[in-house]
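This protein record is not my work; I was only asked to verify it. Would you go through it and say whether the fold makes sense for this chain? Here is the record exactly as it was handed to me.
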Amino acid sequence: MRKPDVQLIARARRGDIAACLEAGRKYLEGASGFPRHVTVGLEYLQQAESHRAADVQRLIVESMNLYEIASHGRVPTLRQAAHAGRVSAQLKMAVWSSLAAADDADSSRWFRRAAEAGDDTSARVLAQSPEDEAVGTPVERLRALKELPCLGWADLLGLAMDRALMRRDAKLLFRALSLCVEDDGTPDPVLADKVFEALSYVSSLPSETINIDRRAFERLLEDCVSRGNGAAALMLGQALSGVDVGNLHWQALVPMQNFRKASALLMRAADGGHGEAWTRLYEIHSNHNGSVANPSMARFCLEKAAAGGVVSAQRRLGATILRASGTLREVEQGMHWLFLAAQNGDEHAHKLMRTFVLPVRGTEDDAARALIEIHRTSPALAIRLRVARDFGLTKLEAMTVDLPTGMRPWGLVVGRNPFIRQARLSSPRAVPATSLSALEGLRGVVAQITGGSVRGTSSQDFDLRHRALRIRQVLAAHGLEESMFFAKVRSRDLDVLRGGARWARSVKSALDDAMAHEAAPTLRI
């Protein structure tokens, strides 16, 4: 820095008003060897503002673009200069009002004042978009001014979207969006991020439509994806696969579906931690008529989604395993996933679980009172009757089930029945707990059995004929029907409850509901 400049800075620091103005001008303009530094320039001008307000206004309006004026909180200064008749300030105020005020009257008034003062740009803008035209007048006016160097256009649009998002003003947000997606050149990274943020917000608004160039949206979202934005990959992948993004129709974002591209984007989103992408990947890979159909990949994606805690995926995975099951181990796996989904409030999963539980008669209150009476004389029998009612067991199952080894985190496995010779009919079956009280009751029973507090409860600790006789005697003594505690079912119907294709056919309607595709969730940012 030259010696006169050093002396100028020294005088400005001592409070010399003229020096403050000159130093502020040089920093704002980056002139005479001074680096351009808006913040430092404004600090010097603030020292002189109370003495030379008009000169400060002139320097701010002429040396700073509109984005810099707005971002540094100098819009009031701009408005004062516009009211004072400065034409360049009036034009900038017209643009700012168009982006920051939903009411178009203020911007129209500034355009007219600037035109009347001889500004050719304002006059041309008014001539191209008369006020009696349709709603798009503000956008048309601003579009005609995009090349003006005094605006800082890309940064200005980002600021306008930030303000609109902060105020939750959809009208101004759509106005800024309409203007920022028209450039066919290389996307501006900051602007692309703002567009994604705006679209994420719009997707949460009810019944909103965007009539904007969809190819531009796709290009800007791709730029976000290329810089590692997993949420943008999820949004674009959903749209390209034909799924609405929240309340935003997919055709508002992309001109056509592209499942191969969607699959690649969704995989990036899933790898980036967006678990819902696995669900959509499962849906497009499981579509047998689709261009990317792949059953093995579909199953892999479904398992990833379920393991990631996606409730609908847990339900679908459980249903998928159960309808194809051929072994008890597979049935248990299916029960595990259905139980997790039901624990998270999924009604379809709970409905499927209930199909494995046989019905018993009587009210719960009557059964509870009866069990209290039976427990006084036959505690071991009362325990088995409680479990039999909660899990819909047949009389033979209730008498022979080994509760400690059969208990599971999701319910109960009734082991192979040693008293039935036919292998198919004696096969074990899994019975889920359809309520927390049933599951907690089973755990309590097992704790008592393993702790030895109730004698005679072990499956080896009885004679079957003696147990059957004892049940009849106890129930008769209390005037109770066996149907209050034991389910009655034919052997071939019992076989259906062991899962597999026969079960799937018997519950086809509920299974179809459980496997149905669902709307994609609203994006979170």
Q: What stands out?
A: Residues 328-343 form the longest helix (16 residues). The CA atoms of residues 258 and 394 lie 54 Å apart. The beta strands are 407-408, 411-414, 429-432.
